[in-house]
């Protein structure tokens, strides 16, 4: 097993695939998929994956990674972002949209999720992972930075301006409301990295068996609300129940 943090984040993708499919290959969009670590692993499992990301550097790394890993035909890299998604991919063309670590950065997370809804097939799923605000409050308080902890505690997603305040952070109820008001039904909520970001790496890396035990503990507590509300990452896997009429698609894409 690799680092616990990365393994937990990959397992979140696997969990979403298991909920979204019945074992057959899926059409997966990895929105903000970055350098394609998850995309390539998904392709190796047999899924057809499209990565849409605004960063040309990330897409260049994805290309290299895809070529080295071999499944070049199964991963498509497209330069774009949540706001112009329908210029690059067709409406109702995916079974699963993975949107991990992205809603923190977009101008309007609600608009981004509405757009995600237009590219999903009816009954398709989205897996959203966002940074947890409670975890940041706790981390600041434990570091003795009580003023910043209070500032973070007083913020909400509605009032968070990413241009002046940096990456947005969420609490579980905000993520659930964003999804339900955009026609999604949350089917599973998980806390990712309840402890993994807090434990000194010296313990995890040197104590025999600590890495496996921490991983197992994280997998146990991820669905306990008492713990998951304090996790560094909040995951919601949600099903699309209603579809808005999509605008016409266009296309600028590069196939790996
Ligand atoms: C923290 S990284 C997450 C990468 C990957 N999804 C993961 O979970 O490891 C955020 C990614 O979102 C991309 N991004 C930033 N703004 C975006 C937007 N408006 N639409 C789509 N992707 C965006 C960045 O280029 C970056 O690759």
UniProtKB/TrEMBL annotation:
Pfam families: Methyltransf_11. SUPFAM superfamilies: S-adenosyl-L-methionine-dependent methyltransferases. GO terms for molecular function: S-adenosylmethionine-dependent methyltransferase activity. Keywords: Methyltransferase, Transferase. InterPro entries: Methyltransf_11 (IPR013216), SAM-dependent_MTases_sf (IPR029063). The keyword Methyltransferase applies. This is SAM-dependent methyltransferase. It comes from Aeromicrobium chenweiae. GO terms for biological process: methylation. It comes from the Bacteria.
